[in-house]
Fold:
Amino acid sequence: MLHAVLSAATEAAEENTSPVVPEPYDIIGSAICFIIILVFFWRYALPRVQKLLDERAEAIEGNIAKADEAQRKAEAALEEYTAQLADARTEAGRIRESAREDGNRIVAEAKERAAGEAARVTATAQAQIEAERQSALVSLRSEVGTLAIDLASGVIGESLSDDAKATAVVDRFLADLEASEATAGGKK
Amino acid sequence: MFVVARAELHAPKQEIALLANALNLLVPMSTDDGGFHGPSIEEFFPGALLFGGTPFEINRITLVRIVAVVALLLVFWLGTRRMRMVPGRFQSLVEMGLDLVRVNIADDLLGKKDGKRFLPLLTTIFFMVLFMNLTGVIPFLNIAGTSVIGVPLVLAIVAYAAFIYAGVKKSPKNFFKNSLFPSGVPWPVYIIVTPIELISTFIIRPITLTLRLMMNMIVGHLLLVLFFAATSFFVVQLGGWWSLLGVGTLAFGLVFTLFEILVAVLQAYVFALLTAVYIQLAVAEEH
Structure:
């Protein structure tokens, strides 16, 4: 059997059924297949894949950049916020300070005004008193003079109607009175 | 496989004979008068379906290859037609496949720049081999497009041309010096080393690329046919208690189908990887 198989196989090989001897159609067909696939990958599939990979890498980089940007913005916003907060605090402090100053000033002004008013009222009152005293003095003087002259006229029986004389006498009397008062006041 | 392949280079006929013999020994039940039809090397030389005898002959193998090419184009056309930034399931799968070649083979071995230059070539080699290997386990196709010498040989020639082109373009002096006169060797040794390097680099490389792929696929196919033919023989033709043996052979057939899928992916990876390695060696400054 072995011999038969061997010879059969050898015969078969002689009819070019050796697997290592290529037929022209085999080579041509294979080459056509190869070229089709090569052109397909080279011109169509791989460039598309490459494009996609590039886009994907770009997108990833873009996203990272975007995230960085967002981070930076957030930080800037935080900084700004903090700064504003600090500004607001100073502002508030300043306002409080000025309010206090204003209050103090208002109080002082009010006090001053009140004091002025009081002084004015006092002065007015004193002036009025002085005026009243003057008028009282004047009326008193004239009445006292009249009374004194009448009294003196009655005493001496002589009319002291001469006004000039009468006035001079009264004035001298009053002056003496005042002088005695003054010396009494001075002694005291 | 490698040793067998090389032996076969010198004596193809005997090799085929031995192969046939080995297969026949594996199947003692095989008799000429019985109903069992074991696989034979004839499977890889089917009759022409169209344009017989012309350079554009179409037979079962060619048809299977056309199906594989169409499937490949369809998958990658659909996968890259409307690519989204955030991929869907199918696009993810396609991208994963392309990434395997781009990252694990091209960029890792050749670096970014050269990797990009040779990426279309490496991608083509990987997926062409992969799809044509997988037809071996797909029902109704049942034979690998790479199990006939055409495809492995064409791709090996392409790889050969690619690494020579890469080396000569980079620096012819460096390329031939590194290939033929490896540094760090005392000069008298060149008398032995240089012929060995010449043969291994410029003759053996394309041959091993071709035969490794083709023989893997041939043997895988023969094994699967053997198991399923035996199952059919035990169950249908012998029947009775023999069917139990059929269950065993069917189980083996299923296991080897899974194994063939692994081999299909592995051989595609190996072919593309070796192409990249050869290019890398050719453009390297110093070994």
User: Anything to note?
Assistant: Chain A has one domain: 40-183. Chain A touches chain B through 43 residues (CB under 8 Å). DSSP finds three helices and no strands in chain A. Residues 40-183 of chain A form one domain.
